[in-house]
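Q: Convert this sequence to structure tokens.
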Amino acid sequence: ACATADRQRRGGGPNKKESKMGREIRRVPPDWKHPTDSEGNYKPLYDGAFAKAAQEWQEGYDAWQIEPQGDYPFEEWDGPAPNPEYYHPEWTEEEASCYQVYETVTEGTPTSPVFTSLDEMQAWLITQVTQGFSARATAEFIKTGWAPSMVFVPGRGVSGLGIHSLDFLADDEEEEEQCNPED
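A:
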């Protein structure tokens, strides 16, 4: 049976960035130290600067005041105004010249060190005893910049978490190609 899983997750209201739970590659400055709380735990942060998120939220709010999309307040549609505590500092593309893996089940916390190149990240993902991902899964992760938390494929079950799930998806895509070859 050749079935594909729905791999799209939807965000909230019109100004919400698409929200995908899993692992993603984020651009960070070389000296980036993710903030921690008083107990030393990482504070979850969205991938973006507060000013842009606040501007987008305000634009949505203003548009809602002119033409509401429902009989309820904008905050119920899009959520409360962004909180600066949940956003990283503003930096330029040139300043964010390195890479780091983040989990995105929360707003986002790092799960890797900072890397100066994607090749360095890929080698770490393959060779680390605690990581040990396949070359195929890491190549797909580097290419797409994201891996789901889990994948369910009818008739095959649920894959492992994070980057390991890319092996599961690749097997499903190969099976689908065999069922639907392009001439």
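Confidence is low (pLDDT under 50) at residues 1-17, 172-181.
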